[in-house]
Task: structure prediction
Amino acid sequence: MLVGMKYGKGEVQVNIPDSNLVAVLELRPVTPIDSPQEAIFQALQEPIGSVPLAQLATGKKSACVVISDITRPVPNKLILPPILKILEENGIQRENIVILIATGIHRPNEGKELEEMVGLEIMQNYKIVNHFSGELNTHKYLGLTKKGTPVYVDKTYLEADLKITTALIEPHLMAGYSGGRKAICPGISAIETMRVMHGPKILEHPKTTTGVIEGNPFHEEATEIAKLAGVDFIVNVAIDRKRRLIGVFAGDLVAAHIAGIEFVEQNAKVVLPSPVDIVLTTCAGYPLDATFYQAIKGLVGAMDIVKPGGSIILLAECSEGVGSQPFTDLVIRTQNLQKFVDDLYDPQNFVVDQWQLEELAKVARKAEVYCYSDGIPYDVLGQLFVYPLKSPEEGINLTLQKYGSNASIIAIPEGPYILPVVFGSLTNAKGLWENSKHK
Result:
């Protein structure tokens, strides 16, 4: 069977033997919203657990609207106009509105990237600034969380009278689900905060994983940090496989976010009766598969459904290469993944982007990893703790040779946007695996 797998801004067709293909896991079909901006306006007027945005804006002198960076396919061109219109109509002058890009520890977004994110009109007519996690002087110290995490948050956000965050809700490899509190942490937090949040004491916890909220230490710490920073209003959305709007969840930081999580989980979760030998996955194409750093999310998303000692085949274009220079250097110089993780428990060994290599280590403990990528030279790919492939079919053939003619294969064309779990796993999944294409 030919299966179309998301890759860059298109797809690659992969031939998988019918006798081995168990299922192709996809998002449950949801009718896209006919009038997206009307739906957003309505959500702003009838929020979840909050008064309307217009009421919050009345009497305020300034506002900060936090948006995700280029690595997330958030429909900012749909979300921002209604928010900005309401702010201005209720007395906040345009020159007192700032759009803050929640880059986390990623690079800034400027020029054509910024235009792609927000559109030319907003780019030219509103103040837009990038968050820089490494510039401690641009952050304010808010104290410690109950568990001792130092909290530093961007001053641009903290100094605004009205604080609004926006985001896309999807399964997330550390936080369980994206959106909500993640706009603050890691979105606009300093590297000093992220040393703890992305350190092994949190990341090695078994509940710091995709699809888990209850008992997830990353989620709990990030929520506490967001509350310390103060969030007056959130606007979170859900999209389908064609990046069309299917849900808007606006209002209270926690209540609106949980409502969005419940909606996304219904559409994204696939419950399997047992794990399989081979998982073919992606990082959902551009923008998430622009770098190997981001593409690791596709691997983590497949972990729950692969057998111990099984194989995960990742298809990721990686048009921008491995990732940031610190991450590239880190991966290339690391010789042993387990020793690398063990060393992380010493704070003196902290390096930027260590957390993503730690996530790769989690996957490598359980399964062999294969990768096909046009954007990374074959010899370099072989230094990234994956088996490099010259074609997707090579990965299928190699793994079938290893596990035999009766090997079981699952394909996940949209990688981390799907939440595949085995019945009885940490997600406490209940239900059947109806959300799939059976052969």
Observations:
- The first strand starts at residue 2 and ends at 7.
- Residues 150 and 192 are 7 Å apart (CA to CA).
- Confidence is low (pLDDT under 50) at residues 426-439.
- The two ends are 8 Å apart (CA to CA).
